[in-house]
Amino acid sequence: MLAFPCGGLSPALASASFAIGFAAALAAWRGIRGGGGPSPNAWDILILVVFGLASLRAFLWLLYPVGDEWRVLSPNNLGDISLHLQLIRYMAAGVDFWPASPILAGAQLTYPLGVDLFNSLLLCAGVPVEKGLIWMGLLGAGLSAWALWRWGGAFALAALLFNGGLAGFLIFQTGHVADFQAELAWKNFFLTMLVTQRGLLYALPCGLFLLNAWRAEFFGSGSGIPPWVAFLLYSTMPVFSAHTFVFLSLVLACAFLVQPAQRKFLAAFVACSVLPATTALFFVTGHFSAASGLRWLPGWMQGNEMWLAYANVSGYAWLQDHSAWLFWIWNFGISLPLLLLLGWSVVRNRSREAICFAGTGLFLFLICCFVSFAPWEWDNTKFFLWAWLACAPFLWEMILKWPVPVRGLVCFLLFFSGAVSLAGGLDGRHGYKLTSRSELAVTARLLATVPLGDRIAVEPDFNNPVMLLGRPVLCGYEGHLWSHGLNYHKQWDALQIVLKHEPGWQETLKQLDAKWLYLKTTPPALIPLPQARE
Predict the structure, then answer these.
(1) pTM for the whole thing?
(2) Residue 421: how many CA atoms within 13 Å on its side-chain side?
(3) What residues does each domain of the chain span?
């Protein structure tokens, strides 16, 4: 909010923001009533230790130097970390708010930038961006572990750490540990969501905190959480994760339907949240201009080329034949029959509490199997995550009430594949080059005299050094452009004509909405475009 009247971020604004945030946190802490919750048992401690070790491995090596290279541990993070580095440095440079898109000229930024904004404040305060990313990762992971344990104990922790289907059982055939789910739709949540989708570092612990508070408030003896704390977390959630905000809104709507005694409070709570939440959505969607990608897609990703290629080249006849229905078995394993059992139990028992949380999760899970909510259909996973976690404690409480040996076997079948994928994804032999430190240094020297707001036409690679240094470009990496719902084709086509020296490229060059052209030659070249439009 301060960045709007102040014209952007600055060290003074960062200091003021941290001071206000600390004061609000202290007030919230003093206002919370009640005890600290149940004590962890042996299983809780074991899974918390595993979660901690996985988090240390993933985030301490989130971005690390090896010789002249900057590397990332996970291939899933190559494209994602590049965008985050650009956004963090771009905002820390003091651009006007709401920022224009740094990846497409003439467009507003359509992205829930909350966590990157926090890292930009750290950068303004003097924390190097690489250290800030690691600190925020460890903090978010630690809070997520605490919130998951409070929400559903060891089972909820395992549900995020080890979600999977049947692919991991290939370890018994291959004899080696690998992320067998990497090419599937239902990937390991820890590796592909918590580590790469940085908004979840805030949205996951805060969303679970709200779910736990609402469960106690609406169906228990009270949460002890001041309403203004819940209001701030909920109404600002779109800045961090629009998917989390939608899920939380569905939970509130269901609570309004099934719990008449709470309707007056819920109506007042939502009414107070409408203006700030809508304002946040207005900005993160580019004034509601971003393409939603909403479409009817029965079967979700079962017809996706990635899955069909996986089934065809894997060499397993049971995948190549009847790949449509095997998609669900291979991806989800026994998760689907357990969710069906949970749905039947919720309907039979008619527990208002289970309907509110598990029922909302099951409904969202079912809808996501038939409707795509984003240009990239895999983004439905951001809803699947919340649907799965909402159901986790109720699966344990309502379904897995069998004798210990049977319960242990079910947990083994449910979590073994994901555990193998987690171990494979965090394997110490990994490490993927993002860029070279010398190339960044040379490019930084070239850009030293270029005004921070000038657009630069670059080759649209995800790791182009101009973008990694936080400079706004004419047209960025295509995977980011289309997944953000941006109308980029006119700019993209013009840029390709120039880069490939196609007929008429000199005239096209004069029409580019950029002031500089950067070429990754040896050495790299920066060419001014004085004829570019202002």
Answers:
(1) 0.94
(2) 28
(3) 3-292+376-381+414-425
